[in-house]
Amino acid sequence: MRMLVLGGTVFLGKAVAAEGVRRGHEVVCAARGESGRVPGGATHVPVDRSHGLGPLTGASFDAVVDVATMSTTWVRDAVRAIGAGHWTFVSSCSVYADHATPGRTETLPPLEDDPDAPMSPERYGSVKVASELAVREARDDDAFIVRAGLITGPGDKSDRFGYWPNRLARGGRVVVPDVPDQPAQHVDVRDLAAWVVDAAERRTTGTFDAVGPANPLGLVLGEVAGATAPPGTELVRVPEAVLQEHGITPWSGPRSLPLWLPGTHRALMLRDAGPALAAGLRPRPTAATAVDSLAHEQALGPDRPRRAGLPADVEQALLDAVG
Checking phi first, is residue 197 left (phi over 0); if not, alpha (psi -120 to 50) or beta? Predict the structure, then answer.
């Protein structure tokens, strides 16, 4: 199979390209090449999508995978200009309008991308909605649209999941949010990539929430601790009120507790994984993702600046506050 990955140099795009190569497919990666290298065995075609598709215009492939993050224009131009027997577009669970109520599937209103508009989760979700519509307009129902949830595993640049194995591996008293029953849900990048390549091979179509099963946060953190923490590690539950008093933010940021969600978003990680699992997504155990994420963290350096998590002094202040 001749496969085009629009991207292919970082995280999911690179994992998809690597999986395609591993299976013996001819893989072409179209990217500027400034964010990283394509996997060994793949062919790199330099393309800056802000200035068009260059040599790809009018080309045909057995399968195309588009991982464009924030540009409906890129998505629309590609799906119109490139021929493909199968088309995958990686969208996001951020397309949903209601993250507080479990089971709601209404999406945000579509928005065209605007590089001058301020970035926000809502705008990101609305651009993804518009991008999905652009794919459907060109392909009707003949497309595979993957609404990814939290993607984890080696290569994650968000630092959200990786914070936990990195911190738990140091042991001691570890601050965790006192919301053990809050749902938590993720998908390992390698499992998502394998499913995307499976779908291309099998010509799977439809729109799916690409997530693993949801479990209580306490169980998820317990699995990570069981796989990475030394004996004697203590998970200290800190009430949300105390976290808020100390200026700790949910989800991400320089003073955050990743995987902790505000009340307005408690259903963000409670999407229905059933359809994706029935269609062939095979998530590995959280403990396995934690072990491999820890190895990636250690390779990067455990004390590097992070995009998400608690600095040591901030964590100690929280521990002092709860005794």
Answer: alpha
Q: Which helix (H) or strand (E) holds 289?
A: helix 286-300
* Residues 106-165: tens digit of each pLDDT: 999 999 877 767 778 889 999 999 999 999 999 998 999 999 999 999 999 899 999 999
Q: Rounded distance, CA 282 to CA 133, Å?
A: 27
Distances (CA, A) of 54 to 29, 47, 115: 13, 7, 22
pTM for the full predicted model: 0.96
Please state, in angstroms and as integers, the Cα–Cα distance from residue 250 to each residue in 76, 100, 160, 288, 289, following that order. 34, 15, 10, 25, 22
The reply to whether 112 and 225 lie within a common domain is no
Distances (CA, A) of 135 to 66, 141, 155: 10, 9, 27
User: Facing residues of 321 across strands?
Assistant: none
pLDDT digits 0-9 by tens, 44-73: 999 999 999 999 999 999 999 999 988 999
The domain spanning residue 106 has which CATH number? 3.40.50.720
33 in a domain, yes or no?
A: yes
Answer yes or no: do 173 and 111 share one domain: no
Buried b (16+ CB within 10 A) or exposed e, 218-243: bebbbbbbebbbeeebebeebebebb
pLDDT in tens, 182-200: 999 999 999 999 999 999 9
